[in-house]
Specification:
It is built from no helices and 24 strands. 0% of the residues lie in helices and 35% in strands. The relative contact order is 0.16. The chain is elongated and about 80 Å long.
Length: 333
């Protein structure tokens, strides 16, 4: 059985794509295959990779085993992978596993653990109940819902949260001590839950680049936001620099044209086309990419002096460039 986990994605994926960084070497499954009892299966990471919001939080709705009260309970582990930086103080909070008495729903007495950083799967932390000393407004709402309130990330990298049910316990390597889901020790073996992971600091995801609006033409003209026509924009390649903000080299010919947006804020869907061949627009010996955008769809405001391009490369790295619009305003005459 394949179980698709609902992920509430606040923003674009927080994969570890800081400028110059590479994506992890291991493969990531997009669905979790049940029954699942190991973080890695045949060399593949059997965890759902989470997308963390810019507020450092991600919410997940999942289920251990079956949720139908009439169904036979199943041994199950859910695994979730996320990226974090050294020093982050992360809270992993399970809620709604233990539910008010209701014969139409199942309660699950959750167990959670943290492994990593990958590719190692060392057991970092484990918990099966909310600590009595943790205020309810700072953690799980039921003592039977697991909570790790203060996992301090030891090393920047990818970590995995495992979720299962008592009386099981996790082992080094991501396995569990048993598959017990019946008997008096397993009163609440299966059911749905909500998990929040918070306190994660995102790496710098967007690489700053240089662009040239109306390349080869520095003449200032009046801006007419409603004018029909196109605006050419050169997306400029650059070599590796010593500046921490843009240390990575940038190859404009690796831009995914379909990802491009351009205009007053950079979020305007004004893309029309890009030239197929690269042109060395700024004579630095590197090929640049010249693209055309719809002027009217660029959403110009009368006071705009600059334009913004946003996009992604073909390997998923985000970038942003800002440049002079080369306009003059009538009130300045």
């Amino acid at each position: 059985m394949i179980k698709r986990t609902r992920i509430y994605q606040a923003v674009a994926a927080a994969l570890f794509l800081a400028a110059g960084a590479s994506t992890p070497a291991f493969a990531v499954d997009v669905v979790e295959i049940e029954p699942n009892d190991r973080i890695f299966t045949d060399g593949r990471l059997t965890a759902q990779r989470l997308t963390v919001g810019r507020d450092g939080k991600v919410d997940v709705t999942g289920a251990i085993g079956v949720t139908d009260p009439a169904a036979t309970p199943l041994p199950d582990v859910d695994f979730y992978a996320f990226d974090a930086q050294e020093g982050d103080l992360v809270m992993i909070d399970i809620d709604a596993g233990m539910k008010p008495f209701d014969l139409s729903v199942r309660s699950v007495d959750t167990l959670i653990a943290v492994f990593g950083p990958l590719p190692a799967v060392g057991l970092q932390r484990e918990n099966n109940d909310t600590l009595a000393t943790v205020p309810r407004d700072e953690g799980s709402q039921h003592i039977g819902d697991a909570l790790i309130p203060d996992f301090r990330v030891p090393t920047t990298g990818t970590y995995v949260v495992g979720v299962s049910s008592k009386p099981r316990s996790f082992l080094e390597g991501g396995g569990t001590s048993s598959t017990t889901v019946t008997g008096t020790a397993a009163r609440f073996p299966n059911g749905s839950y909500i998990m929040r992971i918070s306190g994660i600091t995102l790496p710098v995801l967007v690489q700053p680049i240089n662009i040239d609006i109306k390349p080869g033409n520095n003449t200032e003209t009046y801006l007419n936001p409603k004018a029909k026509g196109t605006l050419p924009v050169a997306i400029l390649s650059n070599r590796e620099t010593k500046s921490p903000a843009s240390a990575a080299a940038f190859d404009a010919l690796k831009v995914d044209p379909a990802s491009l947006t351009f205009g007053s804020t950079g979020d305007e869907k004004s893309y029309l086309r890009c030239l197929k061949a690269g042109l060395d627009v700024n004579a630095d010996g590197l090929p640049d990419l010249v693209c055309h955008f719809d002027n009217e769809l660029a959403g110009w405001a009368p006071e705009d002096l600059e334009g913004v391009v946003k996009g992604k490369t073909t390997d998923g790295k985000e970038f942003k460039g800002t440049a002079r619009l080369k306009v003059k305003h009538k009130q300045s005459d």
